[in-house]
Write a structure and sequence with these properties.
The protein is an alpha/beta fold and 243 residues long. It has a single domain, classed as Metallo-dependent phosphatases (Purple Acid Phosphatase, chain A, domain 2, 4-Layer Sandwich), CATH 3.60.21. The protein has 8 helices and 12 strands. It has helices spanning 13-26, 44-54, 62-67, 78-90, 93-100, 130-136, 219-228, 233-237, and strands spanning 2-6, 30-33, 57-58, 105-108, 111-114, 144-147, 154-159, 165-168, 172-174, 179-184, 198-204, 209-215. A hairpin with a 4-residue loop joins strand 11 (198-204) and strand 12. It starts with a strand and ends in a 6-residue tail after the last helix. Bound molecules: fe (ii) ion.
Length: 243
Amino acid sequence: MKVAVLSDIHSNIEALAAVIKDAKDWGGCEWLVAGDIVGYGGAPNECIEMLRQLGAVCIAGNHDWGAVEKTSIYYFNSAARQAVLWTSKNLSAESRSYLEELPLTLINGEISLCHADFTNPASWEYVFTLYQARRQFDGFATRLGVIGHSHVPFIVQASEEDGRAEQVMEESVKWERGSRYLINSGSVGQPRDGDPRSCYLRVDWSGREIALRRVTYDVAGAQRRISEAGLPSSLAERLPLGR
Ligand SMILES: [Fe+2]
């Protein structure tokens, strides 16, 4: 069983299409999304439609619920707020009800999903430090917990025996018995770790491997779409920088 976990697609259809192709070539047969399907980019309805056709199981991110007025956007910066308001105005009726119905968390087999913070999902707190990551293990009970939100990928491994948790420095790890993992699957549509390539998570249960995977995509096409939509130019300019 091969599972692809995507997060923070942010209406970037060029990136989403490239990731789906890459995961299909790998043999991915199950699709999970850890939130922020929309926001920032110029193709919200197209991204939702592509995920629906795939049968992806999705949860809500702050941008998804922000676009349908289910969570506050008061703390969003100016570009993010403009993009959420533009998204809200341009959502089809089907897309709107799809986003409204997304849950905050879900459990799919041995994988738990939460966009930001397992210990308080509606708070939209960020997990940046190892200290914050360690606390996340109290918020889910499955073998893997996957978050997004910061757009910075990582894998943290925790021992069930003594509770110690450490960051895995490699991009892939063989799943070890007696270990649980907290993973930030990175961002499909707006990476912020200095690498402009899309990022997603591959979970291969039979090969017992967990891997962060990078994929190149048509950045210029995504930039064009942002500018044609009249969205802030900073949202296009950051894509090739991975910032
Ligand atoms: Fe995001």
